[in-house]
Amino acid sequence: QVQLVESGGGLVQPGGSLRLSCAASGFDLEDYDIGWFRQVPGRERQSVSCIRSRGYDTTLYLDSVRGRFTVSRDSAKNTVYLAMNDLKPEDSGVYYCASNCNTDATVWGQGTQVTVSS
Predict the structure, then answer these.
(1) pLDDT of 55
(2) What is the pLDDT of residue 116?
């Protein structure tokens, strides 16, 4: 079964850090661009970061997170990570990983909630 499963969300104070994980099963993550997206109530799902497939290995970031977030891939674990540092309240939302850098992805995880609040 082809699926993505996110984990690692939670409640953190401003300035804190979290690391999200996106574990794949049924396919090799390296063969796909893997994107991270954020959604808040009443707004469209927004691309936050992406790591391109094997052979490209380019990383992409939303301007507001560049320098604070880092996307990486562990091929042995078939997992993509999103390390988030210096978190701000506006980073809050449900974070999803998907099998593309844009919302046309065909495989999506179930999402993990990130709340940044004091």
Answers:
(1) 84
(2) 98
Phi and psi at 77, nearest 5°, equal -100, 0
Q: Which amino acid is at 24?
A: A
The pLDDT tens digits for 32-71 are 999 999 999 999 999 999 999 988 879 999 999 999 999 9
* Gap between the Cα atoms of 27 and 54, Å rounded: 13
Nearest-5° angle of CA 32, CA 47, CA 14? 120
Q: For residue 75, with 0-12 CB atoms within 10 Å meaning exposed, 13-18 middle and 19 or more buried, which class applies?
A: exposed
Pick from 61, 64, 55: nearest CA to 91: 64
Q: Residue 7: which residues within 8 A CB-CB, separation 6 or more?
A: 20, 21, 23, 112
Which residue shows structure tokens 């939302």? 93
